[in-house]
Each structure stands twice: as structure tokens, then as C-alpha cells.
């Protein structure tokens, strides 16, 4: 570390090398938790969104119910139910599942994944439903079957329409992950709470962590802007 | 509460002629439930050792007291933000806290106790045996500081905001053992099936004091005087005997 930072740290009660390491570990946990839940959530959401647009109510109905339930209840409640609820199932402690659910990370990952998958399903479904009829008719005229239409026409076109709304969902998910600290996970917020309770300095502990979240958010915004520019380049005026 | 208000106003009326009588309001913060110090009885009334002691103290100080419920996390910030004037919520006196608030003389001290499920047979003082164990503490308590400093690198520490969440995870086998304020463990863990005390209770810190803002120096003196009177005239002992079978007086 540069000399002046070390010097500044030495005359500082709260932001010592040790507490900065706690923040760093918290940052790693937050990024892991959010990244994994978003990736799994997206992988689950794409097929669900496609099936949600199918006319057969026995296929689309259960998916509607799932998104309705998970978008209709607070994430905190979902996390409590999964974290504490699972531990109350009689005999679960003796099964293989307990090795996974004993640690708070996996119940939180499950709650976050189910939650973001529900929102993402609806985002993608909206984009699929909004596909212009002309595109589908043209695809049919070329003799493409359903699967081929989905793969070649509907999904690429829907992805372009969904990317802006999905960027918001990613940022909301990052911010929502702050509640992981209520089930003893030491994420960024958990680190801030631990440090705050040790030094009784709420402003220092929480403003620092707010800046960390802000930096992460700006990185996400930047990445999605690049992605949008790439996906939507056909919409740019020729002159630019 | 109503009874207290009547008592306080009566006391004020009687003292009306005296120059010392002051008609002033004090707000005292508690974090409930923290049995048997402050909790709601079956009919919803706020009660407990500290609540009754606070009532007696207010009477002694001739003040109109209002009781405020505040979660532990926001105790000191709430005091500094003038949401209330006194904290009587089992706040142990520590150097870090004393930099932010004034403490009265301590009014009780209790040890921290180890509690676990019946099948737990590890010696909690044996660091080698504890190496892979998970210990639960309440975040920011003296028990948290003790475990962090003495066992930090060895055991896996999980920090909770409330004692209930911690007991739930002990019951659900996510925790092997919890280290908690002894009376709390006695009330919330030992009176349930399948749990026991392990190891010896550990005396921690300098006891519990009333916390006030730094600038309220006169109030600190008054609180000290009132507590001293209560400890000497037997009121303190009477209240203590209602809630404890052992001595917590300091």
C-alpha cells in the first residue's frame, strides 16, 4: 500500500487494515451471492418465460402462480421462510440436505434466485409478447417451426427489448442483497453492522459501505450501457 | 405505566411547595424482550427488573417518566439524537461506549453463560476441541467482544441481532453453542426441553449502568444519587428478589 494510505490508516480508529479486510470479505460474499443468484435466475427465467407465453393453461398457469407469489411477497419474508422454515422440518438435520441448508449462504442464494427468476421471467415474457407480428409471420413464411422461430427470431428480438428493464433488476438485486445480513451472512452490510456495533460509529461504517454499493452499481450501469450499445446498434442514427 | 404516572404526579403535588420539585419529563429506552430485565407481561404491560427499577428511580428523582421501546442496534444513536434521555436496557459499561455516552455507577452485573443442546459434550474452554464449533452471540454485546477476542481465530462466530433468532438457530442445529447473558439464557433456553448449560459462567466487564448523553452531567449525578438511595433503603433488594434467585447487585 502507498505510504500515505498506511499513515492515514494508522491514525484512524475505525478504518484499520483489519476492518478493511472485513469489508473486503463482505464485498466478496455480496458479489458471489448476487452474481450466482442472477446467473442461475436468468438461466431458469428464459425457459419459464417462453413456457409462460404458451397457450396451454396447464403449462403457463403454474409459472404464472410462481411469479405471482414471488413478486407479491417481500424478499425478506421469503428469506425468513426459507432460512428458518427449512430448519423446522422434522428430521432434516439427519439428511444430506442439511449439509447445504445448515450454512446461511445457500438458503439466501435459493431465496434470491427464486425471487430474481420470478421478476426476470416477467421481464422476458413482456419482451416476448411485444414481438412484432410481422417478424413472426415472416418467420412462418420461411417455413420455420416453433422452436426455430423462438431461437432465431423471438429470443434475440426479445433480448434487445428486455435488456434495459433487466439492468434495473440486476441493480435492485444488488441492493436487495443487503438483507442477507439478517441471517448471519457477513456480506457488505453485515460487515458494516459488525464494525458499527464494535465502534458505535454508524456514519463512518454505513457511509463507507454505501460508497461500496454505489461503486458496484456504477460498474453495473457502465457494463449494461456497453451491452445496450452493442445490442441496439441497429437503432443508432447513421450519422453518429 | 398509568400507576407510575399517578404516583409521580402525586409525588409532585406533595412536593409542590418545595423548591427542589421539578416538573420535568424523562424518556427511558428499553429493548424488549430481554427477560427478565424488560419484557411484556401476558397482558401486554411493560415489566421486568430494569423497568421496575426505572419506575422506582423516577419516583426517587420526582420525574415524569415515559418508556420508549428501541431496538438494540439503534440505542446509542437514538440517545444522541435525543429520541430519549436515558438507556436502562442492560447496557454493559465499556470503554468504547464511554467515549460516546456518560454512564452512571453500575446497578447490576451478570455473567455470560454457555448454553447448548443436551447432546453437546465439548469443553468450551478447550480451544482444540472447540476448533470446528459454531458459536452464536448477540452482535455488539460484551459476550460478542469476549468470544471475538478470545476465540476469534478458532471457532466460527455467528452474530445475531436478537436472542430469539439465535435460540432458533441453536434449536435448528445451525449453532453448536451460544454464549449469552446468563439470565437471558436461563429464561429463554434452559426452560425449554433439550437444552442445558455447559461450562462455567464467565464474569464480564464492569457491570451495567444507565447511559446518558455526555452533556447531561447533572442528570448523571442525580441518577447516581437515586440509585444509591434505592440500593441502601432496600427497594433495590425487593425488586431484585422478585426476578432473581441469585445476587446481581453491585
Q: How is this structure best summarized?
A:
Chain A has helices at residues 3-10, 17-52, 57-72, 75-88, 97-101, 105-129, 133-141, 146-176, 188-199, 202-231.
Please specify the SSE layout and strand pairing.
The complex is a heterodimer of chains A (240) and B (250).
Chain A: H1 3-10, H2 17-52, H3 57-72, H4 75-88, H5 97-101, H6 105-129, H7 133-141, H8 146-176, H9 188-199, H10 202-231
Chain B: H1 2-14, E1 25-30, E2 39-40, E3 46-47, H2 49-61, E4 64-69, H3 75-80, E5 86-87, H4 95-98, E6 101-103, E7 112-117, H5 127-130, E8 134-138, H6 142-151, E9 156-160, H7 163-171, E10 177-181, H8 182-190, E11 195-202, E12 211-213, H9 217-232, H10 235-243
Parallel strand pairs in B: 1-4, 1-5, 8-9, 8-10
Antiparallel strand pairs in B: 2-3, 5-12, 6-12, 7-10, 7-11
Helix pairs in contact in B: 2-9, 2-10
Helical content of chain A, roughly? over 70%
Q: In DSSP terms, counting alpha (H) and pi (I) runs of 4 or more, how many helices of chain B?
A: 10
Classified in CATH, the superfamily of the largest domain in chain B is: Periplasmic binding protein-like II
- Strand coverage percent of chain A: under 5%
Q: How many strand segments of chain B?
A: 12
Total helical segments of chain A? 10
Query: In CATH's first tier, which class of the largest domain in chain B applies?
Result: Alpha Beta
C-alpha end-to-end distance of chain A: 43 Å
- Sequence stretches where pLDDT stays below 50 over 5 or more residues of chain B: 12-21
Number of domains of chain B: 2
Please tag this protein with its features:
heterodimer; A: 240 residues; mainly alpha; MetI-like fold; 10 helices; 0% strand; flat; B: 250 residues; alpha/beta; D-Maltodextrin-Binding Protein, domain 2; 2 domains; five-stranded mixed beta sheet; transport (chain A)
